[in-house]
């Protein structure tokens, strides 16, 4: 499990008495010490005291959240400060796209309709959490738990004429996937793609190695096609920072 910690979050590894949670609609007025919204539902787990991660995951399962594909199980920071920071980054990216005359581009609409928040914990494996106390922090604050089911698909976004949801690509490396798309749908790529794995890790294949190195893409990977030379393009770099924070929205994207 990978960790990203933020100032407003309190993740302390100390013992605590837990009280029973309340399942309620996801609202944050007069928020309790711990509230975990369940992405894709209108429910939130609300606790009167901080709670361990394993307790939160168990109760999420009781609410029919499937946690089998651990690479895509993510805890997002929904604190007010985190929301402000993500909104500021989103608006900054959209403004850059407007300045580059990309307001009519399908990717602009994709970003505008998406929701974002900083990641706190990624690739959460419930079995590992139960086994290792260092992977089972005490949580307090406001969060969203995302637990996308495993679907054999890869999302291609960015400098392409539409959002491509490519299915049945298990075992096919990035270079072969892109070749197939270039021959059929998206045409020749001007710049190497950027790979964003479901756990938020980013791989930047370069011109010299992405055609020779076999980058295998696990289900729900996002492949970003830059609008310019990534290393020289602040806009593309900011877009990738934003995409790492993207909350999955549906089985379609």
Spans of at least 5 consecutive residues whose pLDDT stays below 50 are: 4-20, 24-29
Q: How confident is the prediction overall: mean pLDDT?
A: 85
DSSP strand tally: 14
Q: Decide which structural class fits the backbone.
A: alpha+beta
Q: State the end-to-end distance.
A: 23 Å
Shape: globular
* Secondary-structure element string: EEEEEEHEHHEHEEEHEEEH
Q: Give the helix level as a range of percent.
A: 25-40%
How many separate helices? 6
Strand content: 15-25%
Description:
With 253 residues, the chain is α+β, with helices and mostly antiparallel strands. The chain folds into two domains: 2-78 and 117-147, no CATH class; 153-244, Outer membrane lipoprotein wza domain like (Outer membrane lipoprotein wza fold like, Roll). The protein has six helices and 14 strands. Strands 1, 2, 3, 4, 5, 6, 7, 8 and 9 form a nine-stranded mixed sheet that branches. Strands 11-10-14-12-13 form a five-stranded mixed sheet, covered by helices on one side. The relative contact order is 0.18. Residues 4-20 and 24-29 have low confidence and may be disordered.
